[in-house]
């Protein structure tokens, strides 16, 4: 038997993390039909690749549909044929949906929030139209930890994007199968697999504080290399007796 390369071993490690997330957090069940949002970034490309492969294992048995949303008022040059080929590599249906948003409709919200919510609503509509009961997003562990730090810093709240979220209003579940996968692992896999980077020129991107949270997470890991795992564990280890009570 041929010896696995370092990249192949890493890819198998990521596949094991996907399997663990699926079963530990109850993300996928037999009979699920899952819509994957494919933006064209490394994370969503990896998610299509990983779920496409996983769907052929039949444990659990599920189907995958891939959707690419084009925001017509933002200069974003995606290679639709390449994205289609990534879906068709695993025999997955591929849908292109065009939409837009007006940043002046709610000045209390940032354009990034409005864009993200418009995309999310479009995913709900596509999922319903194609009889999907779940939507899979390409958020990895870094995204979830950065959101935790962002909420602590800016909102004064201890919360983040959970691996599984029930949206009763839309009769839909959002799942994040890559919740245990580190971004650095995905960067290495993207280089090995040769994922094509899509061109993006978003005029609102600089307004996001996510890049600051990335730096904060790196700083914490410089202090303690195990910091990310401590942060992850803290979310299920709330010691209420050692916290101040809420003042009414």
From TrEMBL:
<dbReference type="InterPro" id="IPR014729">
    <property type="entry name" value="Rossmann-like_a/b/a_fold"/>
</dbReference>
<keyword id="KW-0067">ATP-binding</keyword>
<dbReference type="GO" id="GO:0008033">
    <property type="term" value="P:tRNA processing"/>
</dbReference>
<dbReference type="GO" id="GO:0005524">
    <property type="term" value="F:ATP binding"/>
</dbReference>
<dbReference type="InterPro" id="IPR035107">
    <property type="entry name" value="tRNA_thiolation_TtcA_Ctu1"/>
</dbReference>
<feature type="binding site">
    <location>
        <position position="43"/>
    </location>
    <ligand>
        <name>ATP</name>
    </ligand>
</feature>
<feature type="binding site">
    <location>
        <begin position="37"/>
        <end position="39"/>
    </location>
    <ligand>
        <name>ATP</name>
    </ligand>
</feature>
<feature type="domain" description="tRNA(Ile)-lysidine/2-thiocytidine synthase N-terminal">
    <location>
        <begin position="34"/>
        <end position="194"/>
    </location>
</feature>
<protein>
    <recommendedName>
        <fullName>tRNA(Ile)-lysidine/2-thiocytidine synthase N-terminal domain-containing protein</fullName>
    </recommendedName>
</protein>
<dbReference type="Pfam" id="PF01171">
    <property type="entry name" value="ATP_bind_3"/>
</dbReference>
<dbReference type="GO" id="GO:0016740">
    <property type="term" value="F:transferase activity"/>
</dbReference>
<feature type="binding site">
    <location>
        <position position="138"/>
    </location>
    <ligand>
        <name>ATP</name>
    </ligand>
</feature>
<dbReference type="InterPro" id="IPR011063">
    <property type="entry name" value="TilS/TtcA_N"/>
</dbReference>
<keyword id="KW-0547">Nucleotide-binding</keyword>
<feature type="binding site">
    <location>
        <position position="70"/>
    </location>
    <ligand>
        <name>ATP</name>
    </ligand>
</feature>
<keyword id="KW-0808">Transferase</keyword>
<feature type="binding site">
    <location>
        <position position="143"/>
    </location>
    <ligand>
        <name>ATP</name>
    </ligand>
</feature>
